[in-house]
Design brief:
Growth Hormone, Chain: A; single chain; 75% helix; 2 strands; 411 residues; two-stranded parallel sheet; mainly alpha
Length: 411
């Protein structure tokens, strides 16, 4: 029996995030566990298959490249099949990619499996964002999307621990088995989420022409060139932070276990603050979180090269984790606010493409500056990018109307 249809987003006073917790957030948790389980194992498997260190790093990068290249096709898949089936297809495709990683002994086929995982990531992320944007009333939107992002991070945090236990008992292939179970579990829950009804057309008006990617770019170019630029910068800073902490810990000659502790504590702070931040965005407006998030991360990164040991590095890392944590779901929320009711998947496909471009370019810039000048300069430059992002977002995010949503927040 098919799941019931769910009306598109409306002001429902009885709405509760708890009531939709399992269908809305369960797939994200399982998908995060699935991907988190394999990420630390991919370079090790590549090395076992004969890859050099640089080639193993490239294989890992294929996951991000697959996501980057598939954002626009993901929008077409979601427009064609709908959010629910896009989520299901993403889980199955990811599971097939992981299965290929298990059963092949050829490095090229293993790389293809990793690319498939990245492709599925793009489809899943776009479909879940589009679904939540429609299913959740606008006054709960930031909390829902922040929780969505936070739950995914929790899954990514849990996954490596489950994989470590499985690998210890059964070998490297067991990590991929954990991954397959996670993504197929996400697909199974996703298959049961209610369908969304198409948004109604105003009475007496003809149905609008079906939007295309070109018409979406034309009609919403202002949002892409203002808030979208801020999103690129935010993504660059967030992606760079994952390398900044361990690299500077190594520069300070801290033991690997100590560096891991610092990174883990920063991640713990990150996961604790996503829901309060979403609540602030819903009640006060997006600026109240977007700007402080980048200011805190920017200042912490500018100060990090001045740290001299464990204690001072820990303070800077915790500040970075806090700044990143309060920004959980920010990019998805801004994309949802500016996306049109008709053709939303096209808009979000471009939005996610811009985000992925930032995620790819941030670490690349850090690497370039660290290699050509110094690691301290690269970290400081990343901090300056965060401050620029704060300025762009402060100027481009519409203010909240008294008693209503911010300008640009689509109902």
């Amino acid at each position: 029996m098919a799941p019931p249809s769910l009306p598109a987003s409306s002001a429902q006073p009885e709405f509760s995030l708890r009531k939709i917790a399992i269908p809305a957030f369960g797939p994200s948790l399982l998908f995060g566990i699935g991907e988190g389980a394999i990420l630390p194992i991919v370079p090790l498997t590549a090395r076992d298959l004969g890859a050099s260190v640089s080639m193993a790093a490239l294989v890992v990068a294929l996951i991000s490249i697959g996501s980057l290249l598939n954002n626009i096709p993901a929008s077409l898949i979601t427009m064609r099949w709908g959010e629910r089936w896009a989520i299901v297809v993403a889980g199955i495709w990811s599971g097939l990619g992981m299965a290929l990683c298990i059963f092949t002994s050829h490095l090229g086929l293993f790389a293809a499996g990793c690319l498939m995982v990245g492709m599925s990531q793009a489809v899943y992320n776009l479909a879940r964002q589009s679904y939540m944007t429609e299913a959740v009333p606008v006054m709960y939107r930031a909390r829902a999307l922040s929780t969505l992002g936070g739950v995914m991070r929790i899954g990514m945090f849990i996954g490596p621990f489950l994989a470590a236990a499985a690998v210890h008992a059964f070998g490297l292939s067991a990590a991929y088995a954990i991954g397959i179970a996670g993504v197929l579990g996400a697909a199974a829950i996703g298959a049961r989420i209610p369908d969304l009804e198409a948004p109604p057309h105003p009475a007496g008006q003809d149905a609008p022409a079906a939007p295309t990617l070109v018409s979406t770019l034309r009609d919403h170019h202002r949002a892409f060139l203002t808030v979208g630029v801020g999103v690129v910068l935010v993504s660059a800073v967030r992606a760079s932070r994952q390398a900044v902490i361990p690299l500077w810990a190594e520069h300070l000659a801290l033991a690997p276990a100590v560096a891991s502790l610092v990174y883990g504590l920063a991640g713990g702070i990150d996961m604790l603050v996503f829901y309060p931040a979403g609540k602030v965005m819903d009640h006060k407006g997006r600026r109240w979180v977007a700007v402080p998030s980048m200011l805190v991360m920017g200042i912490a990164m500018l100060l990090m090269p001045l740290t001299t040991g464990f204690a001072t590095l820990l303070v800077a890392a915790l500040a970075i984790g806090f700044g990143n944590g309060i920004g959980s779901g920010l990019i998805m929320t801004l994309g949802a606010d500016h996306s049109p009711r008709h053709g939303r998947a096209h808009f979000l496909g471009v939005w996610r493409l811009m985000s992925d471009i930032g995620s790819s370019s941030g670490p690349a810039l850090l690497s370039l500056l660290a290699a050509s000048m110094s690691l301290a300069l690269g970290i400081a430059a990343t901090g300056l990018i965060a401050l620029v992002a704060a300025g762009v977002l402060a100027c481009s995010i519409p203010p909240r109307r008294a008693g209503g949503p911010a300008h640009g927040e689509n109902r």
